[in-house]
Amino acid sequence: MPHLIIECGARLSASVRDRLIRDAHQALLESGQVRKPTDLKSRLVQVEQDLVGQDSPELTFVHAELRLLAGRSAETRQELADLLLKTLTQDLAPEVQASVEVRELAATYAKRQPS
To answer: How many Å apart are CA 78 and CA 100, to the nearest integer?
Structure first.
C-alpha cells in the first residue's frame, strides 16, 4: 500500500527529478517493508514556485512524505525515514534542503484493488 509523495522546488532539473523518484522507489522496494511491488505507489510533484530563505537562486528543497498503513513500530518508521533521506540526498547538491516525513494512514482509509 505505501504511497510516496516527493515534492521538490522548481529549480531541480528533469534528470535530478527522475533520479530522485526512481532511486527512492527502488530503495523502498528493497527495504523489506513492501509486500508486493505493485503495492508501492510513488509520485513526484514539482512546485511551480518556491522560496527558500531570502530567495537565493541556488537554494531549493526536496520533501518526501511516506504514507503507510498503521502497525509499523516507531523504530521501523524512523528507519524508513532515514533510508529515504539518505537515498534522496545522495545525488543532491549540498545547498538543496531535504526532509522526510513518515505518516500512518487513518483507520478510515479505503482503497480499490484491481481484480
So the answer is: 10
Verdict on whether the full-model pTM lies above 0.85:
yes
Comparing C-alpha atoms, which of 37, 61, 66, 41 is closest to residue 49? 61
pLDDT for 16: 95
Percentage helix, strand, coil for the chain under 3-state DSSP, each rounded to 5: 30, 25, 45
Non-local CB neighbours of 18 within 8 Å, separated by 6+ positions: none
CATH superfamily of 3-104: Macrophage Migration Inhibitory Factor (3.30.429.10)
For the record, the C-alpha cell of 7 comes out as 515534492
Owner of C-alpha cell 529515504: 84
